[in-house]
Design a protein that fits this description.
With 686 residues, this protein is an alpha/beta fold. It has 3 domains: 70-157, no CATH class; 175-432 and 445-464, no CATH class; 568-685, no CATH class. The chain is 30% helix and 19% strand.
């Protein structure tokens, strides 16, 4: 019950608040302290609640066992064994005693390890909540649970990396952010069921001049945490708790960063952790909701002219291609006074704002076009901090062209797949609530429309070449990040280990060697040019990043490789000699080109077939060897069969020149009946 004295104190202080709404919020917050967990921006970050633009960052009131920072920062040595036990019992509603086997020694270890209470709480909470009483004497004590989980995790990670290849790509993250304890803890310390899967956060790193490196107890001060200068991890924690999360994954907190005390560990951890980051956002069973900060980590969502074109924009960053996810997304940063709530108030004299809003919504719509990148997974949602962590969404003339979430590499793999996005930092009158107006020619409208178009495009079906086309538009600080950013966009059973010093072409070579056989066949049968680097049968990294790509991404047949021997081969249809004509010159206006395939049967009779090139790469009139895919009937009484044109060399080796296709089912059947098409021919590809 709330006593009269408390209520009276609140009532007499109303004139100290800037507005009735702020006073009402503060009143409710003070009243809520009597029930469950209550954290405020003032107690956690030293900022008055009414000064916080994003409502969900002002306070958390709920039933999750979250502790205040003051308790989390208390050294275990100060509390003592009994004090630690008392705090754990009070926080988790248990009544354990030191009579439980090994419990006393576990708590003593927390003191010996110089833990604060937050670290001890984070590392013990999972085991504590899962019945620490052993079913039989000396079996499954709390120490047993923790040790078994740690051993299992160590062996799983050790077995995942074989040489320079990751053979188990679906690894849980090495660390997670326990929002209740406000500490980064190892995955093994919370391992129990899939409900513990962390809420992944995707964001674009702001420019160096706009960020600061923070040494924080949240990650044990193991490395400096780079965040926007106007961001607070404590406010983000409050927001995430309000969104229903108990655990989160944030790269700057959970992935070892440069500049820490053990940079040697970072190099080793990144070999495994960097290529498998996409698993955090796309785990099939957990179906995590991804939080996306489009304007920067923890920042309010904002939009200015040029933001969507800026290299720091989330939509422009290479690694974010894998962070889309497969389900609902939470786009963070909307604020009460943001542009999304003021569309009806935009006047002609503010045309520049109208254009910006249109571009903003255009990017939001692009999510729809990219969402189905991962048809093999189903997720729930994504949280996005467009303007950086802890910042409400705003809109300014330079944002879409400045360094923003939309253009960052890593955010591409943080995008979800189905349902809708949840943009963090939302406020009642922010960007997300302003829709493009039907009338007028406001600059704001145009940018807003482009922004939503970008969001919707994330949900479109892309496949192999769609993913590569998306990556062409993105940028990265390290060129190799663009290759790594494709890992979870495609179906991979294995991945190459991360090497930050590896040239992009070498990284691409490693990626194609771990691609599944159907993806590799797409590079062979659909890409219209021979490779210009180490392989002829598939395009080089430079080609897939700088040249026009096929619209198709259809899985055709298997194309195999022996990575150790560096040998690639195809086992399928082969025509030893065929004359191709009519495709030697490209069309200046583009479009499909029609040519002819001429072959002779066993009796010397000549047969002609219509063929189509959907590209402009020239195929000189000449006699070639052809490798073909299986024919594929289509729903509209059509068909599709792909052929690669090239030279058959000694020892059954094949050098690719270009590709064409046949689309008439009767023609395809007629060609096969001539019995000049050899089947199951193993050909080694150069």
């Amino acid at each position: 019950m709330i006593n009269d004295h408390l209520a009276g104190d609140i009532a007499h202080s109303s004139d100290a608040f800037p507005s009735p709404g702020d006073y009402e919020f503060h009143l409710l917050a003070r009243m809520s302290r009597c029930y469950g967990t209550f954290l405020t921006s003032y107690t956690e970050a030293g900022r008055d609640e009414w000064s916080i633009k994003i409502p969900l960052q002002r306070a958390y009131t709920g039933t999750k066992p979250a502790i205040p920072s003051s308790l989390a920062d208390t050294p275990c040595a100060t509390l003592g064994v009994q004090g630690i036990l008392d705090e754990l019992n009070a926080t988790l509603g248990t009544s354990y005693t030191l009579d439980i086997p090994t419990l006393s020694s576990v708590l003593e270890d927390c003191i010996k390890s110089d833990y604060d209470f937050g670290t001890a709480y984070g590392r013990l909470r999972w085991a504590w909540e899962n019945d620490i009483y052993p079913e039989q004497p000396h079996e499954w004590t709390i120490r047993d649970r923790l040790c078994r989980s740690e051993d299992w995790d160590r062996e799983e990670r050790r077995g995942a990396l074989v040489g320079n290849r990751i053979v188990n790509v679906w690894l849980p993250p090495r660390r997670v952010w326990d929002l209740c304890a406000n500490r980064v803890v190892p995955w093994w310390s919370i391992r129990g069921n899939i409900n513990n899967w962390p809420r992944p956060i995707s964001h674009a790193w702001v420019d160096v001049k706009d960020r600061v490196e923070v040494w924080t107890a949240i990650n044990g001060k193991e490395w400096p945490v780079p965040i926007p200068k106007d961001t607070s991890l404590d406010l983000i924690r409050i927001e995430m708790l309000n969104l229903g999360a108990e655990y989160a994954w944030l790269d700057v907190l959970c992935l070892r960063q440069e500049g820490g005390l053990r940079d040697d560990l970072r190099v080793e951890e990144w070999k495994l952790d960097m290529p498998t980051l996409g698993c955090v956002y796309n785990e099939i069973q957990a179906r995590p909701k991804v939080v996306i900060y489009l304007s920067g980590l923890g920042r309010p969502l904002s939009l200015k002219a040029g933001d969507l074109q800026n290299d720091r924009c989330w939509f422009r960053r290479a690694q974010t291609l894998q962070e889309i996810g497969d389900s609902d997304r939470i786009i963070a940063g909307d604020t009460p006074d943001g542009p999304l709530h003021r569309v009806k108030q935009i006047e002609k004299k503010e045309n520049s704002k109208g254009e910006m809003l249109k571009g903003f919504h255009s990017y939001l719509r692009s999510f729809e076009q990219e969402r189905r990148q991962y048809p093999h997974m189903i997720q729930e949602s994504v949280q996005i901090h467009l303007d950086g962590m802890d910042r409400s969404i705003t809109i300014k003339a330079s944002h879409l062209a400045s360094h923003r979430w939309c253009k960052r590499v890593w955010t591409l793999k943080e995008i979800s797949n189905e349902k809708k996005e949840i943009v963090e930092g939302d406020t009642p009158n922010g960007l997300l609530h302003i829709k493009p107006m039907d009338g007028g020619n406001y600059e704001d409208e145009e940018i807003l429309a482009k922004f939503h178009e970008q969001l919707e495009s994330l949900n479109s079906e892309r496949g192999l070449f769609g993913s590569l086309a998306s990556m062409q538009k993105r940028v990265s600080t390290n060129p190799g990040e663009k290759v790594a950013g494709l890992a979870f966009c495609l179906l991979f059973n294995e991945l190459p280990a991360y090497d930050g010093n590896q040239p992009p072409e070498d990284a691409w070579n490693g990626l194609t060697n771990t691609m599944n056989a159907w993806q590799r066949s797409g590079l062979f049968f659909l890409y219209p040019e021979p490779g210009n680097a180490s392989k002829k049968w598939r395009p080089s990294w430079d080609q897939v990043m700088t040249r026009r790509l096929p619209a198709d991404s259809r899985s055709l047949v298997e194309l195999n490789c022996d990575d150790k021997a560096d040998v690639d081969w195809y086992n399928g249809f082969c025509i030893g000699k065929a004359f191709v004509r009519g495709l030697s010159v490209g069309c200046t206006e583009g479009g499909d080109r029609h040519g002819e395939l001429i072959v002779k049967d066993a009796h010397g009779s000549t047969h002609m077939f219509t063929i189509i090139a959907t590209h402009q790469y020239p195929i000189p009139e000449d006699t070639y060897a052809l490798l073909g895919s299986y024919s594929e009937p289509l729903k509209s009484n059509g068909a599709m069969q792909y052929w690669v044109v090239g030279r058959l060399l000694p020892e059954q080796r094949f050098e690719k020149l270009s590709v064409f296709r046949m689309t008439d089912w009767d023609e395809i059947v007629r060609l096969e009946r001539l019995e000049i098409v050899k089947k199951n021919v193993k050909t080694y590809l150069l």
